[in-house]
């Protein structure tokens, strides 16, 4: 018995690093998978961008397989289809329900989290793995369970970007497999969102040059990895080239948009201030406040002095790594610093408002900034411990074990907190879009077969509901087509001019419902097949009257733009606090609007034109 106990202790000691690594991977991946599985069980009716993501994911491996990425509000598509192609595998394997899209996004994030853990373990053993796990678990806690299963391209790319930074550092250390993997991950990022182009390009250059320098004495092996990386790069980008040559020419559209210039950008000062927000003080990824402007929702910068502490800490850690000859740790810091500088330049070139979802990847730069500092400091301390002639190694091992176990406990705590919130969060589109469930059943049941159906949205609000109903029609087996100006969102296979529709479905929302009633419906041109209004007739009449009173006050204050928004259901956030405007009236209108706008679904012949506005992009 004593002998078997001794053997068990020896086995545990010999296999401790591997067991610890598996445990850490399980801890960091668990919140993502739990959130994904919870999403899989949801009866979800995606709207807006999420409906479009599912439509295009369903197109994969059909005659309409996407060759470009998700659409942009600027009228082009992000470069490539890799997001759709990757999501399609777990989406199909898990049943092809809308909840399967949430599960598919969680799989992408779980792979990214596991990949980071593997790279950290390979490069720095249990201590670096533990530190990385703590930072990753902390970031995921404040991203939230809903974010971890969000397939939206600005969201599902955040954790893979963190993996890319780790892979590029590993490639600089001579890791050929990491170089190859960085090609795949970086391509996924750029194809999914063009905003990653500068970040990925700079990191690829660093990884490639670093790998070549680190493997100078391994010529044949180095050449093999470079060839594999080049072949993979060509294969992954072949669909993009095919679309450019024989398809929509999306790359030309991208180059034309970014080449014409003239639009105001965020600028370098704003970008540095955002970096200060993410690196200094209590950053949002640590649980600090992410301050946004109340008028437009853009992220506000932090004062420049907030960069002082993170910059000094980074510099001191680099000095410690240099003095202790911990050159791998120093190179880790260098790669993170390059990512941070590229991040500042990327933000400086953003046109329009700098929304938080556009720069959420700064969270992982901030996390890796402090992980690299901690790793350099540990390497310096470790070298001091090793100077002791007799007990240096044992002291280093004991200190490393204490740090690793402490990090494991902290990561576990953050992961448990994330898992605890899974059942309290909704779907990614949250409360942005009005409930579509009341009209879906009637539409699907009464839509004539076989189609195709041309779906048009009319109203004064976002066209997200129209996108939701397009998806539900296709899920019910009714092919959907769209007008030419929307083809870039839905794909060439849905161009109405190439596939004449059998009928038109009009999705009408907000004040346009009344216009429809008084015009095309009254004349018999269109037939109403479904309707939903969260307010009673009396409540709706009060809201219309209240909005007219608010509009009169706004016109008297010289804000005709807000007056029009008040009566049409548009954005009236700026109206609050304007002199002469009744704040109580504004609050009552805002509260009533939060319950949702009325929806009507109508069907008519292709030639019928109700003459109400245009389908918003």
In short:
The chain has helices at 2-40, 48-59, 82-93, 98-143, 145-148, 153-156, 158-172, 176-192, 197-214, 219-246, 250-260, 268-279, 308-323, 327-348, 362-385, 392-420, 437-446, 464-475, 487-490, 512-523, 537-556, 560-568, 583-593, and strands at residues 453-459, 480-481, 503-509, 527-532, 599-604.
Structure characterization notes:
By secondary structure, the chain is mainly α. It has 23 helices and five strands. The protein has helices at 2-40, 48-59, 82-93, 98-143, 145-148, 153-156, 158-172, 176-192, 197-214, 219-246, 250-260, 268-279, 308-323, 327-348, 362-385, 392-420, 437-446, 464-475, 487-490, 512-523, 537-556, 560-568, 583-593, and strands at residues 453-459, 480-481, 503-509, 527-532, 599-604. It has a five-stranded mixed sheet, with helices on both faces. Helix 18 links the parallel strand 1 and strand 2. Helix 4 (98-143) packs across helix 15 (362-385), helix 4 crosses helix 16 and helix 9 runs antiparallel to helix 14. The protein is globular. The mean pLDDT is 89.
Helix content: 55-70%
Shape, principal axes of CA atoms: globular
* Uncertain residue ranges: none
State the strand order across the main sheet.
2-1-3-5-4
Per DSSP, what share of the residues sits in E-state strands of 2 or more residues? Answer: under 5%
Head-to-tail CA distance between termini: 74 Å
Tally of individual helices: 23
| Number of extended strands | 5
Indicate the mean pLDDT.
89
Order of helices and strands: HHHHHHHHHHHHHHHHHEHEHEHEHHHE
């Amino acid at each position: 018995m004593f002998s078997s106990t001794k053997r068990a202790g020896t086995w545990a000691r010999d296999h401790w690093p591997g067991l610890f690594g598996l445990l850490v991977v399980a801890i960091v991946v668990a919140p993502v998978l739990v959130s994904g599985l919870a999403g899989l069980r949801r009866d979800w009716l995606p709207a807006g961008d999420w409906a479009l993501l599912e439509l295009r994911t369903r197109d994969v491996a059909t005659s309409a397989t996407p060759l470009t990425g998700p659409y942009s509000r600027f009228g082009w598509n992000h470069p490539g289809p890799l997001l759709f192609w990757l999501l399609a595998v777990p989406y199909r394997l898990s049943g092809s329900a809308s909840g399967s899209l949430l599960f598919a996004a969680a799989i992408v994030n779980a792979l990214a989290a596991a990949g980071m853990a593997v790279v950290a373990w390979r490069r720095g053993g249990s201590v670096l793995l533990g530190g990385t796990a703590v930072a990753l678990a902390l970031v995921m806690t404040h991203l939230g369970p809903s974010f971890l299963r969000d397939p939206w391209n600005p969201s599902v790319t955040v954790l893979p970007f963190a993996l890319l930074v780790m892979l590029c550092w590993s490639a600089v250390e001579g890791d050929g497999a990491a170089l190859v993997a960085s090609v795949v991950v970086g391509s996924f990022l750029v194809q999914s969102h063009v905003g990653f182009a500068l970040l990925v390009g700079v990191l690829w250059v660093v990884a490639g040059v670093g790998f070549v320098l680190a493997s100078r004495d391994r010529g044949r092996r180095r050449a093999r990895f470079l060839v594999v990386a080049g072949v993979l790069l060509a294969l992954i980008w072949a669909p993009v080239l095919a679309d450019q040559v024989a398809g929509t020419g999306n790359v030309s559209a991208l180059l034309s948009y970014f080449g014409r210039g003239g639009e105001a950008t965020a600028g370098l000062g704003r970008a540095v201030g955002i970096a200060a927000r993410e690196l200094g003080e209590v950053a949002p990824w640590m649980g600090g406040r992410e301050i946004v402007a109340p008028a437009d929702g853009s992220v506000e910068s932090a004062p420049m002095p907030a960069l002082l502490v993170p910059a000094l800490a980074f510099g001191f850690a680099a000095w410690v790594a240099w003095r202790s000859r911990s050159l791998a740790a120093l190179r880790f810091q260098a790669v993170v610093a390059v990512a941070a500088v590229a991040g500042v330049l990327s933000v400086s070139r953003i046109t329009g408002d700098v929304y938080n979802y556009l720069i959420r990847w700064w969270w992982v730069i901030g996390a890796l900034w402090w992980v690299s500092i901690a790793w350099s400091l540990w390497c310096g301390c470790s070298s001091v411990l090793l100077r002791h002639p007799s007990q240096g190694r044992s002291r280093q091992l004991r200190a490393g074990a204490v740090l690793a176990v402490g990090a494991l406990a902290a990561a576990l705590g953050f992961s448990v907190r994330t898992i605890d919130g899974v059942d309290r969060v909704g779907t990614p589109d949250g409360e942005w879009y009005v409930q579509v469930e009341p009209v879906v059943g009637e539409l699907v049941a009464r839509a004539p077969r076989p189609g195709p159906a041309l779906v048009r949205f009319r109203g004064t609000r976002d066209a997200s509901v129209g996108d939701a109903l397009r998806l539900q029609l296709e899920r019910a087996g009714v092919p959907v087509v769209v007008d030419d100006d929307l083809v870039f969102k839905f794909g060439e296979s849905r161009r109405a001019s190439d596939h004449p529709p059998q009928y038109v479905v009009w999705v009408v929302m907000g004040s346009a419902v009344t216009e429809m009633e008084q015009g095309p419906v009254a004349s018999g041109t269109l037939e109403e097949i479904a309707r939903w209004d969260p307010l009673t007739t009396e409540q709706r009449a009060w809201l219309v009257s209240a909005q007219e009173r608010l509009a009169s006050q706004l016109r008297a204050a010289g804000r005709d733009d807000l007056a029009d928004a008040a009566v049409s259901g548009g954005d009236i956030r700026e109206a609050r606090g304007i002199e002469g405007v009744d704040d109580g009236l504004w609050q009552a209108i805002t509260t009533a609007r939060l319950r949702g706008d009325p929806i009507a679904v109508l069907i008519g012949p292709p030639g019928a034109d109700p003459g109400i506005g245009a389908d918003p992009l």
